[in-house]
Design a protein that fits this description.
Number of helices: 9
Number of strands: 0
Largest sheet: none
Low-confidence stretches: 152-161, 180-191
Mean pLDDT: 83
Distance between the termini: 72 Å
Helix content: over 70%
Length: about 190
């Protein structure tokens, strides 16, 4: 259990981006399962959550930031259903509205992962999530658009809320693109 804390500390403190990324990946693969261990104290959990949220917005390297987002997703899949990370969703909603495209991208990465794993717990946020994904699909930053449209892995039993959310977001995006294309075509038609 202390391994998780040590890896998260390394992911946030190392001068080398490669070491930070590797520490985040190792923490996700080997350490996230220790989240529920009684040996990991409530103070340790709070420290880890605070460090991860800080790293998510402060990390300058794209690959490291994505690895931290994946680590947050792995822990959140365990912590959110148990009521152990009540501030995460609000933090991600704020990131999705950030002027920084890197923040918007990682918010979408984590939201995608969470909707795949705990979609039913997110029902109360359905409208807000739909808006975030629709806006992400038409974002000016290409990595944000990719994150909004990415289907990370095939699911055996996809949550109905996830399917509905993605269908609505894609439909709204296509509709806005179609309107834009029709308006553009009208301007090009000879009079």
């Amino acid at each position: 259990p202390q391994f998780l804390l040590a890896m998260v500390e390394r992911a946030g403190a190392s001068a080398s981006p490669q070491v930070r990324q590797l520490a985040a990946v190792v923490a996700r693969r080997r350490g996230a399962k220790h989240w529920v261990s009684p040996q990991l104290t409530a103070d340790n959990r709070e420290q880890i959550k605070n460090m991860l949220l800080h790293m998510l917005t402060a990390e300058p390297e794209h690959l490291v930031r994505r690895s931290v987002a994946d680590l947050i997703s792995a822990i959140a899949k365990i912590a959110v259903p148990h009521g152990q990370w009540d501030t995460l969703l609000q933090f991600l909603f704020q990131c999705s509205l950030s002027e920084n495209p890197g923040h918007r991208e990682v918010a979408l990465v984590v939201f995608t992962s969470l909707t795949d794993a705990i979609g039913n717990l997110l029902r109360q946020h359905f409208r807000q999530l739909t808006s975030i994904f629709v806006n992400g699909l038409s974002d000016q930053a290409q990595p944000v658009r990719v994150a909004a449209g990415r289907d990370r892995a095939p699911r055996r039993h996809p949550a109905p809320v996830v399917l509905r959310l993605r269908r609505l977001a894609l439909h709204a995006h296509r509709r806005s693109q179609g309107l834009h294309l029709r308006q553009h075509a009208r301007r090009r038609l000879p009079q």
